[in-house]
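Readers of this paper often ask what the protein records in our data store actually look like. Such a record has a labelled line for the sequence and another for the backbone structure tokens. Nothing more is needed to write down the fold, since each code stands for a local backbone conformation. The record that follows is passed on verbatim for readers who wish to inspect the format.
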Amino acid sequence: MKQLFTTLGPLTKAQLGKILPHEHVFVDLRTPDQPGYAQAEAADVVALMAPQIEAIKAQGITALVECSTGGVGLRVDLDLAVSKATNFPIVVPTGNYREPWIPEWVSTASEAELEAAMLRDLTQGVGNTGVKAAWIKISAGDDGITPIEARILRAAARAAKATGAVIGSHTIKGRVVMDQLDIIEAEGYTASRFISIHTQAEPDFEMHKAVAARGAWIEYDNLGWVPDEESVPLILKALEAGLGGQLLLSHDMGWFDPAKPGGGEPRPYTHLVDSVLPKLRAAGVSEAVMVQLTEVNPFEAFAR
């Protein structure tokens, strides 16, 4: 039986409802060589972010996927603190972001060393938290995959193949996604265990269809950042094109930012339920499709 690994342990589909597949509790977008990088007190993070979690619990959201990976402030201990304070499951990744957000150890590690590190996070737990990563989060440059990014991706494909984990990538251009899928398949893994994060940033809708045709998940994760008049028609277009079984919806919001005083001002994770779903219903989208988009797809994408 598939399980979704979370900060509160593995959960089955029957134990979950709506899941937000792309959010952030804690992020540091400074590069890892900056003073104070990814540093914060757990109590401060809980104080700022627990109310954001409580707000989505009240909406019926049952889990959230943390998308901060290595290089941009992955702090599973802080995710765990927020999770325990709110009794709310958070799904965490392993992996690493793109250049220039590459920690020194990653830049010098071999593919085998990177694979071993990801396998350890996926099977034993991240650091000393005891929390197993559910998935692998990576990235690629807008103009193409650099040698370091390719090395990370090959290691990720091997670790994912060994565990059944999904790989999600912050990749803006569809043609670069296609190159990533080529690398994954060359390593003997499957494009169906890949999430094209920020698919909406690719202006050519034919590329959305092409990525999905390879078997990958596509993710529209800018809800609330842009007007619903932009995002809702795109969702409807994807549904009309038959992509509903591979579509993920989220906000890419939050978060505690240690570069800002007090962690900054978080943006809530509530727009999907408050605004987008009602507009989809008004446009004639059935409740069965709503469940597919908000419950079935996120679980199937991240569970293993």
About this structure: The mean pLDDT is 98.
